[in-house]
Write a structure and sequence with these properties.
213 residues, 10 strands, 3 helices, Jelly Rolls, alpha+beta
Length: 213
Amino acid sequence: MAPTTYFLLVSFLALVTSQAIASDPSPLQDFCVADIHSSVKVNGFVCKDPMAVNADDFFKAANLDKPRDTMKSKVGSNVTLINVMQLPGLNTLGISLARIDYAPLGQNPPHTHPRATEILTVVEGTLYVGFVTSNTDNGNKLFTKVLNKGDVFVFPQGLIHFQFNPVYDKPTVAIAALSSQNPGAITIANAVFGSKPPISDDVWPRLSRCKRE
């Protein structure tokens, strides 16, 4: 094989491999219901014995049609996540779901999902939504949109995004689907200012200088 052809083949395989591991792995059987009580630790969950699986492993009475309490939240929102921890049948299927309730002027503050792209649709009310791009040459660009009932918006995997109900007298409800059985969530303010132990004060002047530059 010519050196050039070999190099192109290796480069192509590297690209395919990097894309293949960018999200939850594809399942190798019909299902792998999570055995959440197993002491074995893997990247995901051990499969329950297929002979012990029943329909309840794929079902959860989540009552997602019922409004959630947003009064106890400091930011005026309540996220009801249905991931593999609540629904073991999701294990290896690469998907999860969330209902998000927003009080009037409530928000889901800037956060990321390190393992999932999110697609959100407004079921009732209005949302101001957006995400920020990464640090490329023209990076940190903000994309925003006002969504009304029935509208859909996508937040790319890993990017900082937010939702805000701009209406002062009506709540909003949205349903989000995420491309991971366990997407994770990093709230930016909590991570930066609420870490344990806290980030050293010596870091902040350097961050300010980088921002100016």
